Amino acid sequence: MAQAESRKQNCPDIKDHVGWLILARHYGLPTRLLEWTMSPLVALFFASQNDEKDGCLWVLEPGRMNQQMIGIQQRRLYAMDEAVVADLADLAFEPNPTRLKEQTALVAGRAIASGTRELDARVLVQQGMFTIHADQTDLATVGYGDPPHPSWRVAFRVPKHHKPQIRELLRHLAITKSSLFQTLPH
Length: 186
Fold this sequence. Notes:
Elements: H1 17-26, E1 33-37, H2 40-47, E2 55-60, H3 62-70, H4 83-91, H5 97-106, E3 111-114, H6 121-125, E4 128-133, E5 153-158, H7 163-172, H8 177-180
Antiparallel strand pairs: 1-4, 2-5, 3-4
Helix pairs in contact: 2-7
């Protein structure tokens, strides 16, 4: 945060924890955010990058996920400036280790699906959405709670031997590194 303003215009306000997490996530820093995309083609691009192993394309139904995670009756996507999202973002900036441990214990395993703020062109181009996490719980291991909670996630395997062909097809659809990372180096 201290060095960002000299390297990027329009940085978030110092107290805008959600904004800083979005910016950090988009530049490769580990955060409590996991980025998703609304585009299946963009998702397939990222799932087909590493030829060393099979990839995985996840489909998430954010309203159902939030319904289970928070226990609300309605299914909906949260905005990044809503209190439930801001509370999880604030955990990443808690300087007191004892207080952080206490707060995290209250929401352990919780993740909230939310929309985004287009703080960076990459978010726009990649059609980004986010889940914000209270801790390191893997969403793939989270159960669905009491029946009849329907599944809010589905995974599709992307076999490693098909990845070059998938990337070539995506290239013909203009889904490339340069179209998704619109910066001079790309």
